[in-house]
Structures are given as C-alpha cells and as structure tokens.
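> call design_seq(struct)
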C-alpha cells in the first residue's frame, strides 16, 4: 500500500479543521457536557517566556505511569497542552482533535502530553468517554495546579488556562499560546510552529 505524502496529509488535515471547529465535543455525548458559559478570555499572568527552560514536572498519568519532562529531553520535541476542565465543551473537542494530527506530530519528531488540574479518576473517565487518545494525559491536581502555577497559567478559580507550550529537545520553550479559554486553539498554527522547530528555524 502506498503511504500518502506528508504535505497531502497536512492538506487533508487543514481542510478538516472548519468541520472540527463546528463541533463542540468529539465523541462525548452532549448531555454529559457541563455548560460552562462565557468566561474571561484569560485570568492569569504568564510567568515564563519563549527561550526560557520549561519548568521540570513529574505528574501522575491516567495509565498509572508518571509523566516527566525528563522522559522527553534529548529524545523528542514536546507539545504540552493544558485544558481547563474535563467534561466541558471546548476541552471535549480539543484533545480528540489531536487524534487526526498524530502523523503530523510524528513527522515533526514531536510528542504530545495533555494536562489538566482535574484528578486522575475524572480524567480517566472523561478520556475513555472520548474513545481514547494517542497521547498521555497527566493530572496537575496535587499540589493543586502546581505546574500551572509555575507557568503562570493558573486562573483565580483554580483551573488552568487553555495553553500550549512547544518545548525543544533541550527543554527550552520555543512557542507559547495562552489561548482565549472559550475557543479551541488553531491546530494549523501549532503544526506550523512544530514544523519550524523541526526545520531548525
């Protein structure tokens, strides 16, 4: 079987984004989603910047394993995706949306970790309801929001901002998107940042 070229796959992926964006959740029944309502777009003060080291972390994952920055340093570029809360509309569409981009992550030698301040049982049940994710999901529940607070993305209500951090193989932050908490980050922008990093730009 012939494998489609990466540009072709990316073109298909980008073409699918409008349809994905039209759906609030992917795989989670609507009556299981908590209606959050509109929130202040951001409610925190970023404490890190592009060019600085990513703070170290060692968090429990939903598979019973630890998720550590050291697992990726020297091996893979890393995208860290923070979402505010399980069982909410935008979050329930964002992470499943990364399932269709797995090949693009692999082509750019980039791993992905999802993090929320929810506890492990909540994250376990939520991701199972989504139908599963290809990337590890970790809990920043205790000390509550410890990593989010180090990064300056812990909101005053105790949840994390919707934020993306692209970290290179040396552990240096190369891209940050602290996004409007009410909307899903543009996957195309993230893929472009990954491609630039992989190309050495």
């Amino acid at each position: 079987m012939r494998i489609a070229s990466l540009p072709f796959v990316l073109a298909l992926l980008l073409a699918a984004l409008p349809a994905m964006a039209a759906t609030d959740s992917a795989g989670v029944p609507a009556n299981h989603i908590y209606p959050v309502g509109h929130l202040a777009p951001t409610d925190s003060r970023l404490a890190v910047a592009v060019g600085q080291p990513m703070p170290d972390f060692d968090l429990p994952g939903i598979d019973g394993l630890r998720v550590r920055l050291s697992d990726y340093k020297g091996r893979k570029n890393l995208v860290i995706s923070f979402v505010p809360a399980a069982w909410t509309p935008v979050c329930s569409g964002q992470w499943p949306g990364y399932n269709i981009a797995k090949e693009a992550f692999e082509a750019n030698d980039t791993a992905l970790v999802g993090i929320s301040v929810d506890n492990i049982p909540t994250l376990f049940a939520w991701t199972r309801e989504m139908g599963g994710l290809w990337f590890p999901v970790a809990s920043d529940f205790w000390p509550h929001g410890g990593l989010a607070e180090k990064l300056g993305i812990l909101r005053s209500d105790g949840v994390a901002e919707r934020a993306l951090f692209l970290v290179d193989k040396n552990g240096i932050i190369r891209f940050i998107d602290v996004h409007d908490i009410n909307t899903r980050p543009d996957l195309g922008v993230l893929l472009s940042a990954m491609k630039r990093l992989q190309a050495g730009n």
